[in-house]
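TA notes, week 10

Several of you asked for a full example with nothing omitted. So below is the full record: structure tokens for the whole chain, then the designed sequence directly under it. When grading your own attempts, check the secondary structure regions first.
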């Protein structure tokens, strides 16, 4: 029987009102944690999350927090003092807070740096001060040979995370993945809104490709990474489907033509600043020691000796493969959307 490592643990989730953060809150409620602190600088988002978690009208806000063992923390990771306060008596931090929209970061580079880099440094410093046990940083495929402000700032933050494993008791690791399909600001909700408004579908380039995963798969692998981490790892979720965005647009156009009679055009608006046609989850040439456990690829240059591998609670193996760049077919994309209930026009 697998042990629930989150039972009676105190968890802090930064960016707690985002797509990943809120899904983690909902997932961890089932793990019988001692307390879950959901931190965000979005006041309305925190209120909406509290309503989503327990919408019984007769229960007060304080009673909701007590019942679900959740604390809704209003604060900004740019504020070190606040970071110090919210990390007190915490066992595990999942750091999901970030500025992550590429065009907005390109136009606001200083703000992106202050949140993605300085905010992460504040949390690292506070974690060391308060003797946090485990710290997992949510990263992105855009850190691999980055060209955007968003990718560059997250790459710097990754380096700070991995370098923080020296001379302290906190274990620091990262997890990278591609685009959460259906999350706020992603292409699928945009397409569905355009269809609902009977507008043309717009994409930036007909050759644009992206790795996608569902929110449930992201949460499952984040929690698994925390379970097995020993510090200094970059975890990468394996077997993510690679979609050509034009194919995705054509699939949903065809689907909604059948059920709604939608028949507008697909238009190309031009690639935006900081965007590139393809993303990668890691550069194999830069990493000599790559391992795998279940669906997680593990990069850790310190795992050179077998005795270090054996320190893991589960059996991990050397991984000699390469991340697949093969494109999903339109048939696969359609099935993927249907199986994961992603085609509800109002969702």
């Amino acid at each position: 029987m697998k042990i629930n490592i989150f039972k009676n643990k105190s968890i802090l989730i930064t960016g707690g009102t985002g797509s990943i953060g809120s899904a983690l809150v909902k997932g961890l409620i089932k793990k019988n944690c001692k307390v879950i602190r959901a931190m965000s600088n979005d006041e309305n988002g925190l209120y909406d999350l509290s309503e989503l978690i327990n919408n019984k009208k007769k229960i007060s806000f304080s009673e909701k927090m007590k019942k679900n063992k959740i604390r809704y923390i209003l604060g900004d990771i740019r504020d070190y003092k606040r970071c110090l306060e919210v990390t007190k008596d915490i066992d595990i931090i999942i750091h999901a807070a970030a500025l992550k929209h590429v065009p907005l970061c390109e136009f606001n580079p200083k703000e992106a740096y202050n949140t993605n880099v300085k905010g992460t440094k504040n949390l690292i410093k506070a974690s060391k001060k308060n003797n946090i046990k485990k710290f997992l940083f949510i990263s992105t495929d855009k850190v691999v040979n980055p060209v955007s402000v968003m990718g560059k700032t997250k790459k710097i933050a990754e380096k700070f995370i991995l370098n923080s494993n020296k001379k302290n008791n906190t274990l620091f690791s990262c997890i990278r993945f591609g685009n959460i399909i259906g999350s706020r600001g992603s292409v699928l909700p945009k397409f569905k809104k355009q269809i609902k408004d009977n507008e043309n579908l717009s994409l930036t380039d007909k050759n644009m490709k992206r790795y996608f995963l569902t929110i449930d798969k992201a949460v499952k692998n984040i929690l698994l990474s925390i379970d097995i981490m020993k510090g200094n790892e970059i975890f990468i979720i394996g077997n993510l489907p690679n979609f050509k965005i034009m194919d995705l647009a054509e699939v949903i156009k065809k689907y909604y033509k059948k059920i709604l009679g939608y028949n507008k055009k697909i238009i190309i608006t031009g690639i935006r600043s900081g965007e590139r046609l393809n993303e990668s989850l890691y550069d194999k040439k830069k990493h000599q020691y790559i391992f795998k456990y279940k669906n997680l690829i593990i990069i850790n240059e310190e795992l050179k000796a077998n005795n270090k591998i054996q320190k893991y609670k589960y059996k991990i193996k050397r991984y000699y493969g390469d991340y697949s760049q093969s494109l999903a077919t339109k048939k696969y994309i359609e099935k993927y959307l249907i199986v994961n209930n992603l085609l509800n026009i109002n969702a």
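The chain has twelve helices and 15 strands. Use that as a sanity check on your answer.
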